[in-house]
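>> received
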Amino acid sequence: MKYSVFFTGLIIGLLLLLSGCKKHTEDLVVGTWEFVNVADIEAPHTIEWVFEGGNLRIYHRSKANPDDLTLRDTGFYILESSPLKTTIRLLNTSNSLWNNHWDVVKLDNSYLILHMDIPGGVLFKEFVKIQ
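>> returned
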């Protein structure tokens, strides 16, 4: 009897802890993230991904005129979090390759790194949080 009460309490405690972790992860991902474009550091624009309330907006911002912000794509995201792995699933973007599960390699108040295996290679996207 003692053990069943202990284990029941332990299971309830773990469930509460894990649900709190998901909420924390959701809070971290919400915001504006600037893509780190290591392939073209001289690009005339930056790319910003905005995660908010399940919606994803992707903008291009001119480096010459930072007020020039152009919406390039929209879609949806679903954050899936477990104790061992966090993924972001993208849906309905115009780039069908992106519409998949992305593994979250790193997520904190400053950095977001996403990884996805694709046939013949991998995709990495690295972002810094700007808002």
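>> The longest helix spans residues 2-29.
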